[in-house]
What we know:
binds zinc ion, single chain, 10 helices, alpha/beta, Quinone Oxidoreductase, Chain A, domain 1, 347 residues, 6-stranded parallel sheet, 7-stranded mixed sheet, 2 domains
Amino acid sequence: MKALVLEGVEQLILKDVEKPTCDKDGMLIKVMANGVCRSDWHKWHGHYSRKYPMILGHEMCGIVEEAGELVERFKAGDRVMIPVSGSEGTCDMCKSGHGNLCESYLVPGIGYNGGFAEYVAVPYADRNAEYLPDNLSFEEGAILSCRYITGFKGVVEAAKVKIGEWVAVYGCGGVGLASVATASKMGGFVIAVDIKEEALKIAEEMGADYVINASKEDPVEAIKKITKGKGVDAAIEALGNKNVVVQCFNSLGKLGRLIQLGVTQLGPEGDASIPINPLVQGELSIVGSLSSPIQGFKPMLELVAAGKLNVKPLLTETCCLSDVVSVFKRMDNNDVVGAVVVNDFTK
Ligand SMILES: [Zn+2]
Ligand SMILES: [Zn+2]
């Protein structure tokens, strides 16, 4: 089968490899769509997870080709989405319902060979797959499996947005746009911040009430102006940039919470310098949120399938496996808007 194999820093090679086989409790998936995510770009650059050789790709949807004999929930022919947050089910985090924090780190493309390939063997399938509703395309499902769930869960469970609250979303990539849609649906007044007009246009389509182009004006000052000096109740950092973390923090009003969804660079270069006195004097909080345990996916899928949450505007491009490196190079120049999804695995 064809697969994109990462063999070293920036060494992503399209090659023929052996089709995998599945364990008794795993299943073999024919991959129909896999998103090109910024965390793949990080791995390509060697920023983290330097495990070679590895087939990248952790945003996948497909059709069950074969289910192992111990698999109970799925059978051949089922349309499935593979959540990014894979887990094995026996560690303390799994047992307490936090499979996204599992010690095994069974993330496709990191813990096992991922979805930039014609087939994937998914381990512990009963807990590492979810049905894809019939009215959602594989490409939409791919976006939902990682970027969308991250924004959705960050806003619902970490920010706990209440009706009428002010929410700023910094960074309008897939995670940020999902945050915009979710916060808007929950009744928040949403301010979207980005440096690209095209991304801000999609943010408006997804429900943003205000947009700020941070390349043209200071976003913190603009937010203070929009909120009449008060600041926002929640600021979502959906970018992973230490300077933006500080801007998010400085956008908060009293009792505000900063929700950190973006991962910054490894080591001290990624550390943000947070002013401590306003943190105390405003009783502010900073909360991290990482994708979602498996049980968080079903409610999101049902809302999207019912048309209550919008995913379509995020899907801006589709491509084939051999295009992925050029997408990474565009990411170097911050030149990708929305989500690019691979749906041709033959070349
Ligand atoms: Zn991703
Ligand atoms: Zn676990």
